[in-house]
């Protein structure tokens, strides 16, 4: 990594909203070239902290110091634009420089924004977020501050962004729920928890390991404090006459002990298993369904028989038809031909991208009790509405808050709880991970693994898919759908092998069928590789193979959770280097391959 020049230094930062403390006296710094991920529960101040750091919001106390002259690019969670300005003007603030136009087109193309003259008001919220992201990347700031950059990106776009940010010496502070992104891009994790900030010098895998150590240590500390607290409580009750000036220090110590002893360590002791859910053997049969919108084909004579207890993931580029397929299944739109034959016992629970419109004046607990007072968890046991909310990390205090006080992520989580509380036997979740914090995702993953009904998940979150599904439908566009028996990583590995074999085959065909770009010789023949070029071509093939092998080994090591901090840092840097080297050598190899051998 480059010199550790401090780009951002935060000291003793405090922020409150009325009586509510968001964070108290927190300090951290970010050096040049560091890539930092910020993790916290919904509603605990992640977006607020980013807004403060970028001057969008004030704070109560502390200091924020940037290195002189650095330019910061800030991606807000929900950016806003003038609806009448064009995409190009939105990217360059009406001051586009000619030399940057080409770069803009390249980045916007990667983010699937094709029409640079289209008014921003005609774009969806997801497209506007992608334009805002492009704006940041095009202008090449010294430091990137990104709030949920992968929201509204499909998997291909996310992997492109992962590579783009991971390369070079970019400085980054990012909030994201995408754990693969965190693991592969970030070398430092900051956790905002219990009004404090904790720093972990490693990627997401390392953070998980070290956070558990911190929790275990805290448990020991709390137990010790509890014992001391009990003894001090007895003393306070027994010795009221000792509360004079000489005993003041003991009262102060007692107050501090009480704080520690009552600290809440949120650990789920219950594995929630809705074993009372019943679903028959017939689920649904998709009988040769076709659907198109004008010239855009979504499904074409598609057949699939969904199995009992199946947990399926649906992936594909944005606009390939994933959400349309869900709406066809649920009867919200009708197919052009064919039909869905759905079993009589099936009871859908549908979590949509649009979400539920709440009565903002209701209390959180009332939203849930309006659906049910309790939910069965099998074995003649049940959870009350309050216990169920607590399982999904709503504290008793939050449960009695009004809905309008919740953050955007907390509202999404409450919406999820309304779906699950209705006790469906077939969950259909369309992009459930957007705006949910990692802790909530872990709870949801555990719930889905244990869920004894059927599940369909539409998601671009690769980590979430790997943990929850065992079957994929891959929407490739134009009605083409790949049925794959496995999770996302297994599909990606399989697809990379197939793609590599197809590319090799095409390159061999090119050698035979594609005319050389070089002039024909006087005898009418086409230029062949020189001996030196042929040696270089063969050498590149070997080098690329070895580099790809090294890349796979590093990826496995990074995901193993067994590396030291130094090993994690070195391997993360090497992983980024290999990506660039493979790209460069592949380009050289392709150029040589165009010469007829």
List keywords for this structure.
6-stranded mixed sheet, repeat, Rossmann fold, 20 strands, 597 residues, ABC_tran_C, rRNA-binding, single chain, globular, nucleotide-binding, protein biosynthesis, alpha/beta
Provide a compact summary of the structure.
With 597 residues, the chain is α/β, with parallel strands linked by helices. It has helices at residues 46-53, 87-92, 98-110, 125-138, 155-166, 179-185, 204-238, 248-261, 322-329, 364-369, 385-391, 396-399, 408-421, 438-450, 462-468, 488-513, 531-558, 565-593; strands at 6-17, 20-31, 35-39, 61-66, 72-75, 143-147, 171-175, 188-193, 196-200, 284-293, 296-306, 311-316, 337-342, 348-351, 374-378, 381-384, 426-430, 454-458, 471-477, 480-484. Mean pLDDT is 82; it is low at 264-274 and 513-525.
Task: Report what the structure shows.
- The protein has four domains: 6-207, P-loop containing nucleotide triphosphate hydrolases (Rossmann fold, 3-Layer(aba) Sandwich), CATH 3.40.50.300; 208-261; 284-489, P-loop containing nucleotide triphosphate hydrolases (Rossmann fold), CATH 3.40.50; 514-593.
- Helix content is 42%, strand content 21%.
- It is built from 18 helices and 20 strands.
- It has helices at 46-53, 87-92, 98-110, 125-138, 155-166, 179-185, 204-238, 248-261, 322-329, 364-369, 385-391, 396-399, 408-421, 438-450, 462-468, 488-513, 531-558, 565-593; strands spanning 6-17, 20-31, 35-39, 61-66, 72-75, 143-147, 171-175, 188-193, 196-200, 284-293, 296-306, 311-316, 337-342, 348-351, 374-378, 381-384, 426-430, 454-458, 471-477, 480-484.
- The protein has a six-stranded mixed sheet, with helices on both faces. The protein has a six-stranded mixed sheet with strand order 14-17-18-12-19-20, with helices on both faces.
């Amino acid at each position: 990594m480059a010199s550790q020049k401090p780009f951002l230094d935060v000291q003793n930062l405090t922020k409150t909203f009325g009586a509510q403390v968001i964070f108290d006296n927190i300090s951290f710094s970010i050096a040049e070239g560091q890539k930092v991920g910020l993790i916290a529960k919904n509603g605990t101040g992640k977006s607020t902290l980013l807004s403060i750091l970028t001057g969008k919001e004030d704070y109560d106390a502390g200091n924020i110091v940037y290195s002189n002259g650095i330019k910061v690019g800030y991606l807000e969670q929900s950016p806003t634009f003038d609806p009448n300005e064009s995409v190009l003007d939105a990217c360059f603030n009406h001051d586009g420089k000619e030399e940057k136009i080409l770069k803009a087109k390249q980045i916007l193309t990667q983010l699937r924004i094709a029409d640079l003259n289209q008014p921003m008001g005609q774009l969806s919220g997801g497209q506007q977020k992608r334009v805002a992201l492009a704006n940041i990347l095009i202008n090449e700031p010294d430091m990137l501050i990104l709030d949920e950059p992968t929201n509204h990106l499909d998997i291909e776009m996310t992997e492109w962004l992962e590579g783009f940010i991971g390369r070079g010496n970019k400085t980054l502070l990012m909030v994201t729920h995408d754990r693969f992104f965190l693991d592969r891009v970030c070398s430092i994790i900051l956790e905002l928890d219990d009004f404090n900030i904790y720093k972990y010098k490693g990627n997401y895998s390392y953070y998980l390991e070290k956070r558990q150590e911190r929790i275990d240590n805290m448990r020991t500390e709390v137990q010790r404090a509890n014992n001391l607290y009990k003894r001090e409580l007895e003393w306070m009750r027994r010795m009221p006459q000792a509360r004079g000036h000489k005993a003041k220090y003991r009262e102060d110590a007692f107050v501090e002990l009480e704080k520690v002893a009552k600290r809440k360590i949120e650990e789920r002791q219950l594995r929630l298993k809705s074993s009372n859910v019943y679903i028959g053997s017939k689920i649904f049969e998709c009988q040769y369904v076709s659907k198109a919108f004008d010239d855009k084909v979504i499904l074409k004579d598609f057949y699939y028989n969904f199995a009992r207890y199946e947990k399926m993931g649906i992936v594909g580029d944005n606009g390939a038809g994933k959400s349309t397929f869900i709406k066809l299944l649920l009867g919200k739109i009708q197919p052009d031909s064919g039909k869905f034959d759905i079993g009589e016992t099936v009871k859908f629970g549908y979590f949509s991208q649009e979400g539920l419109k709440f009565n903002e004046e209701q209390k959180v607990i009332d939203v849930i009790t309006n659906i049910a007072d309790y939910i069965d968890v099998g074995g003649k046991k049940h959870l009350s509405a309050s216990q169920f909310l607590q399982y999904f990390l709503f504290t008793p205090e939050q449960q009695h808050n009004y809905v309008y006080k919740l953050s955007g992520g907390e509202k999404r989580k409450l919406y999820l709880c309304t779906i699950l509380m209705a006790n469906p036997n077939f969950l259909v979740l369309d992009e459930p991970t957007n705006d949910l914090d990692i802790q909530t995702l872990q709870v949801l993953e555990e719930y889905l693994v244990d869920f004894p009904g059927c599940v369909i998940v539409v998601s671009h979150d690769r980590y979430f898919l790997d943990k929850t599904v065992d079957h994929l439908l891959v929407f490739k566009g134009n009605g083409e759908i790949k049925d794959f028996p496995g999770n996302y990583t297994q599909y990606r590995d399989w697809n990379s092998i197939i793609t590599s074999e197809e590319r090799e085959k095409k390159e061999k065909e090119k050698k035979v069928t594609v005319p050389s770009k070089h002039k024909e010789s006087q005898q009418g023949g086409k230029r062949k590789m020189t001996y030196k070029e042929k040696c270089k071509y063969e050498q590149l093939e070997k080098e690329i193979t070895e580099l790809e092998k090294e890349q796979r080994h590093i990826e496995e090591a990074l995901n193993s959770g067994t590396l030291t901090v130094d090993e994690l840092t070195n391997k993360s840097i090497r992983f980024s280097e290999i990506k660039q080297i493979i790209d460069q050598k592949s380009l050289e190899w392709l150029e040589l391959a165009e010469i007829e051998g």
